[in-house]
Each structure stands twice: as structure tokens, then as C-alpha cells.
Amino acid sequence: MHVSARTFWLPKEGNAADEYEDAGWPVGRIERKCSYFRCAVADGATETSFSGEWARLLVEAYGRGRISSATLPRTITELSQTWMDGRPTRDLPWYAEAKLQSGTYSSLLGLTVSSRKGCDGEGRWKALAVGDSCLFHMQADSVAAAFPLQRAEDFTSRPHLLSTAAGTGDRHDLDIDKCHGSWMQGDRFYLMTDALAAWFLASAGAGESPWDDVDRMASYGDECDFAQWIGGHRRTRALKNDDVTLVHITVE
Amino acid sequence: MPYTAELSRTNPSCILFLIDQSGSMSDPFGGDRESNRKKADGVADAINRLLQNLVIKCAKSEGVRDYFSVGVLGYGAKVGPAFSGVLSGRDLVPISEIADNPARIEDRTKKVDDGAGGLVEQTIKFPIWFDAVANGGTPMCGVLTQAQNIVTSWLSAHPDCFPPIVINITDGESTDGDPSAAGDGIKSQASSDGNALLFNVHLSSHAGHTFEFPASGAELPDQYAQLLFNMSSPLPEHMLAAARQEGYRVEEGARGFVFNADMVAVISFLDIGTRPSNLR
After folding, report:
1. B30 pLDDT above the threshold of 90
2. How far apart are alpha carbons A16 and A131 in whole angstroms?
């Protein structure tokens, strides 16, 4: 199996690059022959602090094979400790202390593509999601799978997310969505955080072909092209002003 | 569509709190004559909790982001800005300055879920900006008129902002006339995103029912509550949706009005970005 992967990202307009709170894995561009490939996106919640660090921990853990739907509860506990160890604890203003006590939150969408053939003779893929970051499996000009959300109107500003906080009860009640399927030569996978995914679904729902722009960006675009493309959609309010992350995968 | 403007540091909005400091606020709260809890204590608690929640909402890794400027006008023996200390005399203050300048910070404990089905006590810092005050009449028309002037001035500098929100915390018994027209004056002010919102928190000596965001005033216990209900703006669509997600049973037409209850939930209805549904 040959995998081409590219990750694009852009902070919310008006925010600095170091205020970007999404994360994508892999970082940058990869061309690789392999028997399986892992990638992920995560979206740290605006209303919590240090959520970008949490999102980065989650995608890296998924990318390095530390997270599956079976191991997620245990791994989240370990990663929460790593996140907490990286936080300042002394001489904090009252509001920073309150914010840390409530923990931080992020979505996570992870995709594993495998060259191992299923009974239909095709390669397999599986994905897990907590929250509203989305996967689109593209076969030619058709959306073969949209996961976990299928309609633009399903997005809200209040998704259920992965938390570092003890006391939310989340460890015992993780709301994990799972999906799997098979892929063929030349299929693409898009992993998108919510603003871009909502735009993609709205555009596809309106009979347009948003995959043309996405594939063109992955084939020919650079960071500046991506920023211009996203900026154009933000200006027309077709795309909500939010951090944006796209991981684009082609498998052959 | 109205009430969809982005709340950001480059396009902030303003929230103005009006706090009743009249002599009648020394009466018992919620008909509770056995405890010493007065309506003025309820007002102080309400404003401190509202400010605390607003600051925490805007706090990020690097500090507090100025998504809002906030004013507090007191009305009782006099009408005017109610902050003390370094904020004294200012009518609107960026939320980051309010965060850094409470009058004092108390340690309190609260019980939180330990994640394993039990509860543990957690010490939290509780900032206090305002103490209970009860002195003089209830010049509600006067304070609403002053609030309108502040809102008008804000809108001239921020014409495309999310509309200003005025939250009036009172026992409802205006002593300088019917406040309805002054309330209408605030609600007639508008940004390109919609009209300013006027919400009311009625703290009464009446025992019995509490009401949160009702759509009708028919069951409210007296004419003061009904007057404040009628003055209150309907919750915009996204706030209605947020209220439902927070577990409130609100109907279409629900208004920004509570009776003997708090309005801290309104802070969570404000949309500055992703808020986890499982955030406690």
C-alpha cells in the first residue's frame, strides 16, 4: 500500500498561530509504502484552556498506535496526567486555577488504513470519533462514507468531547463512535475539524463538488494557497471563523 | 440572521449589569424570615457569580480575552457606576481588568464528582467584587436611562457587534415611575446584528415557586414580576437552543427573565466558540 498524506492547518482569523487549538497527524507531508497507516485530527474546545496541547497529545497518541476504541479509556487517563504535568500549578490567578480545575476538552477523530484484505479482496479501514471532527471516504466523485456526522445541520457549538477532568465521569462513559469499511486503489480520505467539515457537507448537500477543491489543494496547494482558499470561504460566511485542519490521504 | 455576530477580541460586545441597592433589599429573600438571608445578599451573590462565570468563560491559557466590556450600575440612594477600588467610577471595563481586580478573594469549598460515582470536596477561590448594599429608593427608570446612554455610546463605536445585553437584578418595586418606557429605550438600540437585549432577575420576598425563562407571565405571583417579565427580551434562537442543551425546559418565546432564581446560565448561553456539552 502506498500512502500520500498532507496536513493543512490555519488558525481562526484574528488569532495568532500560537493560539491555534486544533491538531493534525501526521505533521506536514508524507509519502510512504506501508502495511497500515494511522492519522488523526483533534479540535481543542475554545471554552477551555490549554486545549491545543490536549489536542496535540491525542493525535500523536493515536498516530503512534496508543489509542484504539478498546484502549481509549486507559490511554486518556495516562494522557490526562501528561497534560496536567505540563501545566503551571503555582501562583496562578484565581481564574486560571478555576479553569485548570475544570480540565480541558477536545474532539478526536482517528483513521487507520490497512493493506490487509477483507473477504471482498479489498483493503480495510477503521475509524473512531469522539465529538464532531469528521471523516469523508471518497471514491472517485462520490462520498462513500461520512463519519460521524452526515449533515451540516448536525453541527452545534456544544459537542460531547474527550476530557482531562476527573469528575466528569467520562472515563466510564466515553461516547465513542466507530466505523469501518473497505478501500480501493486511488481512494481518498479527508479528516476535517468541524468548521471545514460543516462547509464540506453543506456544499455537497447543495449539489456542489467540494472534493474538487479539496483534492486540488492536496495536489498543488501550499500553506498560502490553503490560507487564501479558507479565507475566501470565511469572507462569504460559507465557512465559520474557527481553527481549520485538513488531513488528506490518498491510498494506492 | 440576527444575533449571529461573532464574539471576538476584534469584535467584542458589552454586558451591563444593573444592581438594585435600595432600602427594600434588606427584606428577607424568598420569604425566608428564619435565616438572615436578605434580598441584598441575593443581589451581591448574583452579581459576583455572574462576573465570576463571565471571567472564567473568557479565560484562556495566556490570560483573559476581552470578548466583552462589562459595566455595573448600582441604583439606590444614588445611580451610577458601582465598582470600587481601581475600577471606581468607570462605566465599562474590559473583562480582563475585572478579572484582575476583585475587591477580595475568599476560599470556598464545593463538592465535585470524583469520576467514580462519589463526591469529593474541592477548594475554590471565590472572587468578591460587591458586598450587599441596601439604602434609599429604587430609581429603576433612572438607571435604565443611564444604561441606555452607555449602550448607545458603545454601539456608536461597535456598530457590528453582538448586541449589548443589559441584566437588571432587582426586587422589582420601582420608586421613580413605570420603567417600561425606559426599558423600551434600551431595546430600541441596535447593532447591525440585532437589538440590545434586556434581561431581568427578580429577587422577591415571595415564598414558593421559582421561574426560569418563562414564555408567559400569567403564573407570576405579582404585578412587579409581571412588569419585569413584560420588559424582558425574548431569548434569541441560539440562546433558546443552548438553554435546551443545558437542560432547561424552555418554550418558544421564552424570555430573559428569572424569578427568585439565578441567571448564571445565561453566561453559558453566550457563544464564544466550542463549549463541550459535558463541561461542568
Report:
1. no
2. 25
Cα–Cα distance measured from residue A217 to residue A223, given in angstroms and rounded to the nearest whole number: 9
- B115 and A CB contact within 8 Å: yes
Using a CB–CB cutoff of 8 Å, tell me whether B247 touches chain A. Answer: no
Angle at A179 between CA A174 and CA A183, to 5 degrees: 150
Could you tell me how many CB contacts below 8 A there are between chain A and chain B? 112
Chain B contact present for A165, CB below 8 A: yes
Check if the beta carbon of residue B187 is closer than 8 Å to that of residue B221. Answer: no
- What does pLDDT average to in each consecutive run of 10 residues of chain A (252 residues)? 96 94 95 96 93 96 93 91 87 89 94 87 92 96 96 89 69 78 96 97 96 94 94 95 97 94
**B125 to chain A nearest CA, in Å?**
6
**Gyration radius from chain A CA atoms:** 18
B contacts of A17 (beta carbons < 8 Å): none
For residue B114, what pLDDT is reported?
A: 67
| B118 in contact with A, Cβ within 8 Å | no
Q: How far apart are the first and last CA of chain B?
A: 30
CA angle B175/B178/B184 to nearest 5° reads: 130
* ipTM of the complex as predicted: 0.87
